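Anyone? Bumping this.
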Amino acid sequence: MKTYLLPSLKLTVILLVILAGIYPLAIAAVGKLTPGHGDGQTIQYKGRTVGYANIGQKFTKDEYFWSRPSAVDYHADGSGGSNKGPSNPDYLKDVEKRIQDFMKHNPGVSRAEIPAELVTASGSGLDPDLSPAGAKVQVARIAHIRGISAERINNIVDAATEKPLLGLFGPAKVNVLKLNLALDQLKAKN
Amino acid sequence: MNTELTGVIFTYLLTLAIAIPLGVYIARMFRGDKTWLDFMAPLERFIFRFSGIDTKKEMNWKQHMFALLTINSVWLFYAFFCLLFQAHLPLNPDGNPNQTPDLAFNTAISFLVNCNLQDYSGESGATYFTQHFVIMFLQFVSAATGIAALFVLFKAFRDKVTDKLGNFWDFFVKSITRILLPLSVVTAIILAFNGTPTSYKGKDSFITLQGDTAHVSRGPAAAMIAIKHIGTNGGGWFGANSAHPLENPNYLTNTTELVAQVIIPIALVFALGFYLNKKKFAYVMFGVMTLGMLMLLIPTMNAEISGSPAIAKMGISQPTGAMEGKEVRFGPANTAYWNIVTTIISTGSVNSMHDSAMPVSGFMMMMAMMTNCFYGGCGVGILNFYIFIVIAVFISGLMVGRTPEFFGRKIEAREMKIASIIALLHPFIILVGTAVSSYVLVHMPNADWAVKPSSWLNNPGYHGFSEMLYQYTSSAANNGSGFEGLGDNNVFWNVSAGFVLLLGRFLPIIGPVAIAGILANKKFIPESAGTLKSDTSTFGIMVFAVILIVAALSFFPALALGPIAEHFSLK
């Protein structure tokens, strides 16, 4: 055993320096050159930070596009999903409640028009996106409350829609924070 | 939907396009040929000189295993005590507390054995120090341990009668300097440029657009997320793992992480072929593994894209499939692909919550970990596969009435005993663990523990049973993903899973290396007309059948009680 113990200890020390010390510091140095300088990309509006570009935040007010339900209420210091199984009866009741809540706030919308992501919780609890359909189904409500034509709001949804990667791979999506900022800026212009 | 399918196909093709040349490179590096990473040589010499290691001393298989177990024991104690006292160590800007002894026990073992089961959340359960100096460190060295053990097998497979199988330290250090570290640097840089944080600043807070206060956990995550995938580890910086928008910001990083976790397992299959000059054998192996993957993948993709029948019944449209526990930016097809990739190769990182996946997907993910050899983890995947090869050779030998031989060596009673024990160990620890936990849950639901057994499960019925089965399967396969609804941060789960982790790691490494070591010392019999050819599709089918019978069928009763029952009750 002794033949191996001493080399094991020394090797552990030197590898700790290289792998846990130098390697992440080198990556941190490269990170300084990235758009968010390694701190995470933030979004500024009217001179203050209103959020992180990639991290979803809670939007529950009717004048904003709602973000998805979150199992952790968008607490970005404790991410997580609901971990509810598809056959869990309590979970299915929660979903039904969300559907009715959505229909109450969006009169005229039928069940078949509501895409699943608006009534299910995301994996991280911090999903920053909606599918384009998930945004469009909310347009009528926002147009009514803000007194802006549905057509103009549809236009900003289209403008905010991010195409699949290279137009070929993955789903299309809309960042809810950026969409709602565009909405506020629209009002400011009026 | 089409762009989602093209995304999956593109990701897989990109994986192969990188993995095959990487396999050539690994074979060349291992043979000692010139490679473009030779500039690492001075660093390696420095490491060896500092550690007092003479890499010219060749070891037999037992000495290899002694070295492996000694250094792994050192890491276990080191990791356990760091986690136990992490609050008092430096680099803790968020002021996170010490881990409890049972949690530290589980966490230290879990990362030591390349599993990365996490009974804590990264935001609150670890500090920047332990994330880097314990967790990320173990992610490198545990992956290198697996690769080094596989290299012993490579040496033993040569047409040479010998007990000299190279030097463990040499294999181990070069796995890091020539494979893991360079690939991690590239991956980490891609992640950093796409928004994964790299700085050591602690939590941030701000006021959201609609006026709420929000706190954001950050930290130097990119470096760790890179090796977490390159080394098929899977333990995340944040609680939500690669579903977290900082850990996996967009489709490009998702593709990067998917490719990163599969390239080494696939490359090692080809490296074996190139190194031993048995390319056809490598193709057969790759074919069997790919067939296994597709059989798991296609039903999973179908189930996730079709969506939940229970949600459909409520009249909700599911154009993007089943969305509970999933992220919009990845979509259901890609998420299903990730589900299977992460379970076949023992990464265990997740980009969705597996607990909320459809029952068919849950079945396939558990089956992936129960077979645990379709590509498999860094190094250990092929070690597991080798056990099935030995059994297949033996059975086919009996069927045609010839002495079973593999690569010119007779397989006899001793080797078969080892192979059988290792093959049966996996179902044994999974099923016994699940049986014990089910017994405790049913017979002592209100035991006076910190967490009562009655509150372990997050879901009732069949799905609750699946949560327990999944936990032990993931532990035994050293996978690390979970049905995370399970309340696993308590003494019962931390400790029982900890022991399953240890058994599921070291015996399946020692067993195959022992067989290979013993075989290498036997007389070499040149191929003749009577030799069972191991590089034909017939033999591939034979191996596949053995995997199906040994691994899959032993689990069928347990699976019938969990995901299968749930599937048929879900309407």
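Late reply, but here is one note on the structure posted above: Chain A is about 45% helix and 10% strand.
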